[in-house]
Design a protein that fits this description.
By secondary structure, this protein is mainly alpha-helical. Helix content is 75%, strand content 0%. GO terms for molecular function: ABC-type transporter activity.
Length: 240
Amino acid sequence: MWIICKKEWQQFFSSLTGYIALAVFLLINGLMLFVFPDTSILEFGYASLGGFFSLTPWILLFIVPTITMRSFADEYRLGNFEILRTLPLTPAQLVSGKFLGCLIIVFCAILPTVIYAFSVQALSVTGGIDIGATIGSYIGLLLLGAVFTAIGICASSYTNNTVVAFIAGAFVCFLLYNGFDAISKLSFFSGGVDYYLEMMGINFHYRSISRGVIRISDLVYFGGLISFFLFLTQRNLLKR
């Protein structure tokens, strides 16, 4: 499994695309947080990373499928999948290796943004940022990245076309992140149905953790989604 994990890591950084994807992620976040006047923390008058944690999931929604789109699609296209199947690895180990490799890359993209929290804290004259909410938001961001990674790998396992894998992964991520929120706001969903529909979406649980309160139900939700998409990926590999 660790061999596959290492292979995934090396494959991503073997081309300029990997470095560009991470650089674009950090650049967009930096510009939105400190430069653009509508979202700049310097224009708020108080220390808060709320804008950053609201924006980053939308950026991850496109960056993570970029990271995962080659996971299995390239293996199919280049004929390497047959070689992988000859290794003494079960489909579960193969999927886990791919997942961990991509997840480490996603974590490496998120990790440098911690400097934003230190910067805002240093710039604050009084009070500073809410440490509990910031830690909770980062935990939510890591869980969100893990779910998007599982979805992206699952999408990549169904095609040998990396563009199709990217589009499918990004669409499913968008649907699960914001789709249920949008549906719950329709006028004919009322009387509590709208609340339960909203609960089915990722955004509901992400916002819950971002408040600094880690609930078991939120962890179970994220863990269940990750397990579900990794299981679908494993089943798809077995069919091949």
